[in-house]
């Protein structure tokens, strides 16, 4: 038996599991690097390697989680102060507590609210739209309280704040150190620049596998020809409708200034305001080190950052995405197809599920242990 794996960090972890089970496999990666969405950009690798905790620039640049100005930190110091974060957490505490006590029972509870958005949920709790806007601004991204499901909001609250903070792990040197490490230990290394369409690579080589695990991001999966998999109507639809955040146009976060029509688009500001702006820009220029912009939608092999489930989709879409195709021989994995989607642990967990599905199909009860 041989398994074909199509790229991604979930695919790498699937390879680790298959190695432990003594099952042969190939890994096909369409891009020229491993890890797909696991990507670390280094502005100055040499400076990073030489830096030490005693170096102020090290902390200013790399350890800026807790920023302060004139000894006033960004965190609320007075426990009695009004906190958007606390208000939000209090509303979903019943569900996060249920997840901690019994995940299956807790998940069933939050699915009862799956058809609601966070805004709808909070309105029923008696909050006004202005109060909800305030909580969204402080706690999350603009528009999320209207576009994603209550189930997703609860899962994020649970992952971020309910889990034991002592169990979080820092990967020194960047997240791609994880994929580089996995690549060192897997027996069969990924073959790069293998663009898979119907498991035909570059129209020159064809591979035969008993099982195939696709860890392609769902945004990119939408452009792959899967007609021969004989997907059902609901499964086919699920692949088409799931949103990938940062892939579509975002809500406008600032003013729109049309420099070609300054009289109507750029309002006149008094001289004192212009002076203040110039001083601010000068100070920012002194602090500015550089930037790196990454277009998640610009790469065909990504086609978006991570999946976002809208109201109702946890129960109506996700089960169909996780369902094997081709009579149990085609399996789908990735961060979106897990309870912890948008997180790398979600990708890892989904890989475990696909291997378990293969073992069940093959009746390999001993290996399942």
TrEMBL record:
Any single biological process term in GO: amino acid catabolic process
Domain of life: Eukaryota
InterPro entries found in the cross-reference section: FAD/NAD-bd_sf, Flavin_monoamine_oxidase
Record SUPFAM superfamilies: FAD/NAD(P)-binding domain
Signal peptide: none
Any one GO MF annotation of this record: L-amino-acid oxidase activity
Protein name: Amine oxidase domain-containing protein
Organism: Fusarium redolens
Lineage: Eukaryota, Fungi, Dikarya, Ascomycota, Pezizomycotina
